[in-house]
Amino acid sequence: MQHPIEHFCCQNPGCSDRGVRGGGNLSFRGWSGTGKRIRMVYCHTCKAHFSERKGTVLSHAKLKEEKAVALLEHVREGCGTRPTARLIGVDKNTVTRYIVLAGAHAKSVHNELVAFSPSDS
């Protein structure tokens, strides 16, 4: 699924526009990955470039996006590691690796959202 540039933000911790979505500082520049299927994003503010997957659970994924998403959907629905591996057509260790990646990503997203949530009065 190709997202428009407004869905992205700079991932460079030293950039003054880091985390700003739709700020007009980003553009797509080139492709990466097998078959040139992953877009590269360029920040005009800090001159950094990064994959459109950076900051997501698919950041260093070798599987195609559709297969990785299907894997995570099976796990979310309670399907075990071995059945998921059989249904998706991957090794059980691949399923385990994606579960670990998704858990770490979910934890960091949770911590970020909690830091910005309003306090109870």
Task: Give an overview in words.
With 121 residues, this protein is an alpha+beta fold. It folds into two domains: 5-51; 65-116. It contains three helices and three strands, in the order E-E-E-H-H-H. The chain has helices at 65-76, 81-88, 92-116, and strands at residues 26-32, 38-43, 49-51. A three-stranded antiparallel beta sheet has the order 1-2-3, with no helix packed on it. Strand 2 (38-43) and strand 3 form a beta hairpin. The protein is flat. The model has no long low-confidence stretch (mean pLDDT 87).
How would you sum up the global shape? flat
- Poorly predicted runs are none
Structural class of the helix and strand makeup? alpha+beta
Order of neighbouring strands in the sheet with most strands: 1-2-3
Overall structural domain count: 2
Query: How large is the count of helical segments?
Result: 3
Overall average pLDDT: 87
- Distance between the first and last residues' Cα: 41 Å
Q: Strand content of the residues, in percent?
A: 5-15%
Give the proportion of residues in helices: 25-40%
What is the H/E order? EEEHHH
**β-strand number:** 3
Q: Largest beta sheet, briefly?
A: 3 strands, antiparallel
Question: How do the strands and helices of this protein lay out in sequence?
Answer:
Blueprint: E1 26-32, E2 38-43, E3 49-51, H1 65-76, H2 81-88, H3 92-116
Helix pairs in contact: 1-2, 1-3, 2-3
Brief summary of the model shown:
This protein is α+β, with helices and mostly antiparallel strands and 121 residues long.
Name some characteristics of this structure.
single chain, 121 residues, alpha+beta, three-stranded antiparallel beta sheet, 3 helices, 37% helix
